[in-house]
C-alpha cells in the first residue's frame, strides 16, 4: 500500500511523487510557452494511460492552453480531423502513435510541432505491447528533453486554469467529435465545479483513486487531473483487466474508481474463487456512466459493492446532470437518477410540447447552476424549443418522482462497450470502396457483454464482386478497429422509401435480441 502522507502517481511498477510530477509539468510548461503555447492554444495528446499523460495535461493548462486528448485507437483520417478542426499547434505523442500522427499531419495539411514521449519498458510490459517500442523514432524532439531544457518551471499566470478549460471534445464519441467551446469560467464557477466533482466523485486529499478507463476520454481525464491537483494518490491502469482491477483495489486500498457498464459486467462475471481473493471493502465510490447498464449487471454489482456503487448521466456540453445511489436505484430500477445542483431535465414530444411522467420523448437538459454556457467549434447547434436547454440525442421519460429513465437514442448511434459509434462515418468509408453502390450500418445485439455490435448491409454495383474480406481490407487504416463491422452482408437491395429514407428498424429486426 502507498504511503498516503506523500502523494504519488503509480502506473504499473512505476511510482512517481506528485511533487516531482508538478515540478516536471512546470518545466514542460515553460518549454511549451517558449514554443508559443498561450491562452487558447491547442495541444493534442495522443498517449497511452501513463504518468506523462497527466504531466502533459497539467503543463498545457499552466500555459492557459487547451489539452486536446486524442483517441489512441483512431487512424490517421480521424486524427487529422481533430488536428485541423482544433487548429492544433503541438502534438505530444507516445512513440507507438508517431506514425499515425505523421500521416494525420500530412493529410490535414497542418504543421504542428511533434513532441515524442518515449515508452518505458514497464508500460510496455503492463500494457502487453511490443517491447521494441522502447526505442524512440528519433524523428522528433523528446518529451524528457523538453523538460530537461528548462531548469525553472513556468511562473503562475493569472486566469490560465480558466483559459485551459475553454475547449473540450465530446467525450466517448467516435466519428466526427465536436469541439465544445465553453464560456470563460469565473473563479466561482471553477471552485463550484471542482468542489462538486470532488464531493460526488469521492475524491479527497491523501485518498486513493484508480484510473480504469482511457485518459483520452473526458471524464477519466478530468477526474484524474482534479485528483492530482488535490493530492489524491493516483493509480493508473495502462489497460483494463477485471482481476487486475481487484488486485489494485485490494493492494492500494482504493476508495474511488470510475468504470463503464462493460467493466462492471466483466467484474461480476469473474468466478467466485477469484473474487474471494480480493478485499474491496475500501471502495466508497465506484461510479459508472457512459452507456446503459443492463439491469441484471447493475443488480449483481449492487449485491457486491453495495452503497459504493453510484451512477450519473451527463455530457461534455453540460456536465453531470443526474446522479443515483445504489439505494435509490433499488427503488427506481433502471433510472439514471435525479437532476442535481440546479440542473434540469424535461421530456418533449416531437412538436416540442412537454410530456407527462411515463411518456417517452426527447430528453432535454440544462447544466448545473455553475456550469458555463457553450457553443460548438466550427459547428452550428440545432435550435432548441426550450430556452437554455439542449438535447444530445437521447430518448427517455421521467417517473412521478422526477427520476430519469433512458430508453434509446434519437440518432442511430451504436454503443459498444461504453463507446459511441456513428454509423454515418462508417457508411461513408464503405461507400468509398470501389464497387459499393449502397450501404446501411446499424447496431445489433452483441453476443458478449459489449452491448451492441456493428452490422453493415451493402449493395454491390452491377458486375462488382464484393466480399466480406475486401470490404474489411478497404476499411483497414481508415477506421479504428472497433468501428469495422462485425457482421457484413452483401444484399440485393436496402429497404428505402421513395424519398430515400432507409428503414433501419427493418434491418435490425433481422437480428434476434438476447
| Uncertain stretches of 5 or more adjacent residues | none
N-to-C terminal Cα separation, in Å? 42 Å
Structural class: alpha/beta
Q: How many β-strands, per DSSP? A: 25
- Fraction of residues in β-strands: 15-25%
Using only C-alpha atoms, the radius of gyration works out to 23 Å
What global shape is seen? globular
Biggest sheet strand order reads 2-1-10-9-11-12-13-14-15
Largest sheet: 9 strands, mixed
Average pLDDT, all residues: 91
How many helix segments? 17
Considering DSSP H and I runs of 4 or more, what fraction of the residues is helical? 25-40%
Q: Helix and strand layout, with pairings?
A:
Layout: E1 8-11, E2 14-17, H1 18-34, E3 42-46, H2 51-62, E4 66-69, H3 76-85, E5 90-94, H4 98-108, E6 113-117, H5 121-127, H6 143-148, H7 160-164, E7 167-169, E8 179-182, H8 187-201, E9 208-211, H9 218-230, E10 233-236, H10 242-252, E11 256-259, H11 261-268, H12 272-275, E12 285-288, H13 295-305, E13 309-315, E14 319-325, H14 326-331, E15 338-339, E16 344-348, E17 361-366, E18 374-377, E19 394-398, E20 404-409, E21 414-416, E22 419-421, H15 423-431, E23 436-445, E24 452-460, H16 468-475, E25 487-491, H17 504-508
Parallel strand pairs: 1-10, 3-4, 3-5, 5-6, 9-10, 9-11, 11-12, 12-13, 24-25
Antiparallel strand pairs: 1-2, 7-8, 8-18, 13-14, 14-15, 16-17, 17-19, 19-20, 21-22, 23-24
Helix pairs in contact: 1-2, 3-4, 11-13
Amino acid at each position: 500500500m502507498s504511503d498516503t502522507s506523500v502523494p504519488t502517481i503509480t502506473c504499473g511498477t512505476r511510482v512517481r511523487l506528485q511533487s516531482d510530477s508538478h515540478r516536471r509539468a512546470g518545466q514542460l510548461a515553460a518549454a511549451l510557452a517558449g514554443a508559443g503555447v498561450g491562452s487558447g492554444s491547442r495541444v493534442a495528446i495522443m498517449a497511452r494511460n501513463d504518468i506523462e499523460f497527466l504531466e502533459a495535461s497539467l503543463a498545457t493548462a499552466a500555459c492557459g492552453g487547451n489539452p486536446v486528448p486524442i483517441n489512441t485507437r483512431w487512424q490517421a483520417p480521424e486524427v487529422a480531423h481533430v488536428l485541423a478542426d482544433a487548429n492544433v499547434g503541438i502534438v505530444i505523442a507516445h512513440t507507438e502513435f508517431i506514425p499515425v500522427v505523421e500521416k494525420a499531419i500530412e493529410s490535414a495539411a497542418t504543421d504542428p510541432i511533434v513532441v515524442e514521449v518515449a515508452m518505458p519498458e514497464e508500460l510496455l510490459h503492463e500494457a502487453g505491447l511490443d517491447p521494441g517500442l522502447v526505442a524512440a523514432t528519433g524523428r522528433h524532439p523528446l518529451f524528457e528533453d523538453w523538460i530537461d531544457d528548462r531548469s525553472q518551471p513556468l511562473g503562475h499566470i493569472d486566469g490560465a486554469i480558466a483559459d485551459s478549460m475553454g475547449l473540450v471534445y465530446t467525450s466517448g464519441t467516435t466519428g466526427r467529435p465536436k469541439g465544445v467551446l465553453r464560456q470563460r469560467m469565473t473563479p466561482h464557477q471553477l471552485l463550484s465545479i471542482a468542489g462538486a466533482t470532488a464531493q460526488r466523485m469521492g475524491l479527497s486529499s491523501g485518498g486513493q483513486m484508480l484510473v480504469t478507463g482511457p485518459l483520452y476520454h473526458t471524464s477519466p481525464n478530468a477526474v484524474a487531473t482534479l485528483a492530482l491537483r488535490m493530492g489524491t494518490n493516483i493509480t493508473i491502469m495502462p489497460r483494463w483487466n477485471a482481476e487486475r482491477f481487484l488486485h489494485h483495489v485490494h493492494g492500494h486500498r482504493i476508495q474511488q474508481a470510475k468504470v463503464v457498464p462493460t467493466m462492471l459486467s466483466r467484474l461480476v462475471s469473474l468466478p467466485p474463487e477469484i473474487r474471494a481473493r480480493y478485499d474491496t471493502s475500501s471502495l466508497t465510490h465506484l461510479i459508472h456512466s457512459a452507456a446503459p447498464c443492463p439491469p441484471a449487471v447493475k443488480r449483481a454489482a449492487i449485491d457486491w459493492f453495495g452503497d459504493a456503487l453510484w451512477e450519473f448521466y451527463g455530457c461534455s456540453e453540460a456536465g453531470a446532470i443526474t446522479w443515483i445511489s445504489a439505494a435509490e436505484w433499488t427503488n427506481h430500477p433502471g433510472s439514471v437518477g435525479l437532476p442535481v445542483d440546479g440542473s434540469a431535465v424535461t421530456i418533449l414530444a416531437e412538436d416540442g410540447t412537454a410530456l407527462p411522467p411515463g411518456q417517452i420523448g426527447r430528453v432535454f437538459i440544462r447544466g448545473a447552476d455553475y456550469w458555463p454556457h457553450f457553443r460548438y467549434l466550427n459547428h452550428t447547434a440545432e435550435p432548441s424549443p426550450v430556452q437554455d436547454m439542449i438535447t444530445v440525442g437521447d430518448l427517455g421519460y421521467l417517473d412521478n418522482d422526477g427520476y430519469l429513465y433512458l430508453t434509446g437514442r434519437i440518432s442511430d448511434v451504436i454503443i459498444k462497450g461504453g463507446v459511441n459509434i456513428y454509423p454515418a462515418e462508417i457508411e461513408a468509408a464503405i461507400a468509398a470502396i470501389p464497387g459499393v453502390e449502397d450501404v446501411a450500418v446499424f447496431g445489433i445485439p452483441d453476443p458478449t457483454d459489449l452491448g451492441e455490435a456493428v452490422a453493415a448491409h451493402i449493395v454491390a454495383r452491377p458486375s462488382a464482386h464484393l466480399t466480406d474480406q475486401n470490404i474489411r481490407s478497404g476499411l483497414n487504416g481508415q477506421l479504428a478497429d472497433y468501428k469495422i463491422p462485425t457482421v457484413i452482408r452483401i444484399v440485393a437491395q436496402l429497404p428505402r422509401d421513395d424519398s430515400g429514407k432507409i428503414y433501419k428498424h427493418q434491418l435490425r429486426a433481422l437480428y434476434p435480441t438476447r
